[in-house]
């Protein structure tokens, strides 16, 4: 399911004798109602809660964030770099893996955020669960007329369910239903027996 959805975004390109793959992110996917892309009008700072509201997934770590014209942040900031296109007021760019530890987005849910300086929508969010952490992520056509990218971020969620589906991912994170302990069941049973006995005695009187 998710793997098939992501494969639809992978564009294989031949260069000399070597083939490589890219993960293409385009806001047009959101306009077609795709389940792996969503938008938010919240123009405030980092908003991992948007991911929970839109995808039902609780985010627990900022893996990588690149600020246009500024520094990089996140637990994997040393292993990734971003080149924006154009360099000023960009509407696209490429996130590349520079070596070292790659982010684990195959066992954990991962989400890619593209934030604009202003405009509508304020941010685009993509579910990139299944990304191998080493493939280039290419952004295209973000706010080509009245806005530009201010930063991008990659967020990590909790471990995936066995079936790898976003719909089940939130269910995996629900707290387990509490099962009464045996001692509690015994107390409840004795209480019920007491009530039954009292009713029988009252009936006889």
Into which percent range does the helicity of residues fall? Answer: 10-25%
Largest sheet: 6 strands, antiparallel
Uncertain segments of ≥5 residues (pLDDT<50)? Answer: 1-19, 162-170
Beta-strand percentage?
A: 25-35%
Shape: elongated
User: Treating each run of at least 4 consecutive H or I residues as one helix, how many helices?
Assistant: 5
Roughly how many Å apart are the termini? 68 Å
User: Spatial order of the strands in the main sheet?
Assistant: 3-9-8-11-4-5
Mean pLDDT: 76
Question: How many strand elements?
Answer: 11
Supply the helix-strand structural class: alpha+beta
CA gyration radius, whole angstroms: 25 Å
Q: In total, how many domains does the architecture comprise?
A: 1
From N to C, what is the helix and strand string?
HEEHEHEEEEEEEEHH
Q: What would a concise description of this structure say?
A:
This protein is α+β, with helices and mostly antiparallel strands.
